[in-house]
Amino acid sequence: MAASATIQRTIYTGPFVHSLSLTELEICEKGAIGVDENGIIAFVEKELDLGAVQEKHSWQDATPVQLKGNAFFFPGFIDTHTHAPQHPNTGLFGKTTLLDWLQTYTFPMESSFTDLKRAETIYRNFVSRTLSHGTTTAAYYATIHVPATNLLADICLARGQRALVGRVCMNSDLSPDYYRDASVSQSVADSKASIDYIRSIDPKGSIVRPIVTPRFAPSCTSECLTSIAKLAKDESTFIQTHISENKGEIALVQELFPTSKSYTDVYDTHNLLTPQTILAHAVHLSAEERKTILARGATLSHCPCSNTAITSGCAPIRSLLDEGHTIGLGTDVSGGFHPSILENVRHAIWTSRHLALQSPLGDAAKLSTEEALFLATRGGAAVVGLADKVGGFDVGKEFDAQVVDLGSVSEGGENEGKFDAGPVDVFGWESWGEMVEKWVYAGDDRNTTAVWVRGRVVHRTARFEGRVVDGTATP
Ligand SMILES: O=c1[nH]c(=O)c2nc[nH]c2[nH]1
User: Fold this and answer.
1) Which of 79, 80, 92, 98 to mutate to test the pocket of ligand 1 (most atoms within 8 A of CB)?
2) Which domains are seen in the chain, by residue range?
3) Are 217 and 180 spatial neighbours (Cβ–Cβ below 8 Å)?
4) What is the pLDDT of residues 393-426, one digit of tens each?
5) How large is the ipTM?
6) What are residue 33's DSSP bridge partners?
7) Which of 203, 321, 394, 399 has the fewest CB atoms nearer than 10 Å to its CB?
């Protein structure tokens, strides 16, 4: 589907659920969301029937999409940190932790992206896979290869998934000689070439944007970090990197940058901490580092599945939120073992509970369902610089949404005993609030039956067709 295809004015009726704030989730049982020809939300009604909505807004000619059954609209998920070329390794990490995991699994896989055919297969699959899990925006790390990085941007644009796409910079000898930038100048020139290409295919950055991506401090020499920070400034791009993920990594940073006060100080003294910087992990930051990050306005990507899988630790998200940090969720495939942000919502909650068991904060360290859903949507939108565009159903925002359909046991018949409507069983007596909780703790991609970005359908299943009346927007 071309991102430029026009769409029809559409009125989406049925329940909708979204975050109003970190702690408040709005559940509107009788919603109507009007989306104009540009994919912008023109109105949101909370009590009226379709006819009354059409009349009130003079939208009689709009296409109605009316949800039936135990289904609701939810904002598209935002994945603030993931590595598309690592997708074939998802679930493969054995007993490794970060530094040996990089050498054993990650660098060999990423280095193979000189092969564009292989890159295309993997990237197409990953973009389709993440869309099927309701991810409407992703901040992607690609590899050091310019052609494959550009191909990832092409695929995101063609599929209509919003993306920040970053060619990875890594020139230090932490990386094997078969997979590293030959020099600082090559690192900068290749990054610039990829920025230029991505801007040429989407000049307004409506769907894809470039992002400068120094892999992490140990992968880059001091000169490389400084040069790449200058490139980001000159080109006005976002920056993404990793920080304070694993204790061995932190010790290595201290060894490689002996005059720096801390991991955070390395980035700060190389001009890499800006309000457009996304820092992934942030598991073991000191109080002083947290203050510096907050003062610079850099944001955080919390990756709970990855932090557990490669045994990095439990990030203190509750405290970071209380301090005022801006935080989203990241799948961090393939340190993370799952491409779904929903999976990371529940793991954010689980890991906060483990932390609560050990922390002097006790229950105050726990994240609630509402808070985790906020991080997955509005929090992530703020991290990737799209807080004014996506993350909730507000007039003026773009319609990035998914349908969550839980099916029903009482429907029996064709679904009974087949379980193809997903792992959640709804018996008919649950409140909408209970259905949302059941989805958060047990749902999966079988429940995500349709997905839109800027009002365009980017993923749709056969179950969706059976759940709408009076027509649907076509891809
Ligand atoms: O989880 C991670 N995944 C990576 O690919 C990586 N590179 C540096 N640090 C990293 N952490």
Assistant:
1) 98
2) 2-75+394-460 (2.30.40.10), 77-384 (3.20.20.140)
3) no
4) 999 999 999 999 998 887 666 556 667 789 999 9
5) 0.98
6) 12, 44
7) 203
